[in-house]
């Protein structure tokens, strides 16, 4: 017997030592909060203060949750057990915590082993927030897991394996307000599944496998996320006198073929239907001959039915509408006419060939309009339409030959992107208006203009007079000729100027007079000289890559020393000597010359060397050698001249002597 006792003690002692060692792992204490996350714990610590209110055990290696020692901490309000390996919950373990309000069991193994064998989580009388995401829970298991939780307001079942919601799934949760079910595989929601949740206001069903939402009837719901499913149809239940509260609806990344009938949702302020297959009517409205939805049980009106107009009439409070990445070829006038509160409209990446807003008061509150990445050839904007528009994105279309005052009519326009079109700017007010050109002068609100890649051949004088631009991009217009005075009027406002990739050989812009200029991009040209900055300016970033600069003399760059912070010079045939200003910046660190280890230069016709390795004395030594060589060559030439002269004199005297002798 004594041998057995000794053997038992020998086995028990290492376990006790290990347990004691684990208890010595220090949790961080802040007031009455214990932070024990990521400490490699295998059990709940038992030596913490008994009056703690917050216990964070996330990121450990817990497998079991037992009433002892967890039940010691009866004052707990917040318990985080996420990211462990929990597969067993002792029955009634959370009932020993009468004040528990927030319980986080996310990313464990609750669907494995005996975690749910008896009673699930049991009653949670005071819990208001419960996170069960990432536990591989499947349909039928959730009902056994969830018990009575009369005060629960927030529940997350995201990132599980649920395929179906039944009428009994959420019984016992009468106060629930937010329900997160994203990233499951839900394919079916039984009628009445949410009837037991009269206060549900926020429902996330994104990233599931739903194909149809028919008879939507959650009148109390304010936020609904249905993004990233396979939904072909969305239909609101036709209930007389129903007052739907839905204000936020996300249907992006589905398979919708048409704009749904939303007439019963008058409180909608946010609607996202991007990345679908939506098309609008391209002809007059029809009756029963319209195109129907492909689903067999879809009973909505035809695509071209009068209910389509009723749907748009109900959206008078809509402020944000995203229809990007669809197959829209035309926006009917009647659709835009009713969106009187719309502030943000995204129609990018569709098949639009024309867009018009001509009526007085059309889209009066619109602040941002994105029509980029379409095939727009025509743009018609009325003189008193889009009165609040500040940002207009038209890049990557086929616009050309627009009316001259297309953008001058936009009274609040601040940012305009025309990159990748064929829009030609007119000259200033004193210049004749050429056919097909667009005026950019006299737009007092415009601050940012992008005309990169528009095949602009000539920028005429006064093109931006009385338009106080702060950013101007004229890049990627090969062969661009900038006339003298083309940027006149921008000297006191322009902060960013891009002339990249235009093949410029001469820069006919008096850059030193642009007192506010901070960023200047002249890369990808053929420039070899810059105007002289003799006085301090504001320029901070100067990009001269891939030009023909060999020298950046201090006489031209001296005015930049106090402001310049970054200089790009790769791809220029720099000379090692004569660039004293540049080498001084490198060695003194006043200017960050990008990738200086790649900058190379030449000592005359000698081999290329790294500019960062060039010292001032290297050029001085080279200069002395050159001076000595010049002196030697000069002396040699003078001596040769003297000897030649003496030889000539001797020859002349000899000839005279011979003549006298013969005589």
Describe this protein's structure:
With about 675 residues, the chain is of the alpha/beta class. Among the domains are: about 15-210, Leucine-rich repeat, LRR (right-handed beta-alpha superhelix), CATH 3.80.10; about 225-280 and about 310-400, Ribonuclease Inhibitor (Leucine-rich repeat, LRR (right-handed beta-alpha superhelix), Alpha-Beta Horseshoe), CATH 3.80.10. About 15% of the residues lie in helices and about 15% in strands. It has 8 helices and 39 strands. The strands form 8 sheets. It has a 24-stranded mixed sheet, with no helix packed on it. Strands 36-38-39 form a 3-stranded mixed sheet, with no helix packed on it. The longest helix has about 45 residues, at about 615-660. It is flat and about 140 Å long. The N and C termini lie far apart (about 160 Å). Residues about 1-20 and about 285-305 have low confidence and may be disordered.
Task: Considering the chains and any ligands shown, give keywords for the structure.
24-stranded mixed sheet; cell membrane; flat; 663 residues; disordered N terminus; single chain; Leucine-rich repeat, LRR (right-handed beta-alpha superhelix); 8 helices; membrane; alpha/beta; transmembrane helix; transmembrane; three-stranded mixed sheet
Helix vs. strand class: alpha/beta
Average residue pLDDT: 86
So, the CATH homologous superfamily of the domain at 16-209?
Ribonuclease Inhibitor
Query: How can the largest sheet be summarized?
Result: 24 strands, mixed
Per the CATH scheme, the topology name of the domain at 16-209 is Leucine-rich repeat, LRR (right-handed beta-alpha superhelix)
Number of E-state strands: 39
| Low-pLDDT segments, ≥5 res | 1-22, 285-307
Strand content: 15-25%
Radius of gyration: 39 Å
CATH class of the domain at 16-209: Alpha Beta
Judging by the overall fold, what is the CATH architecture of the domain at 16-209? Alpha-Beta Horseshoe
Categorize the overall geometry: flat
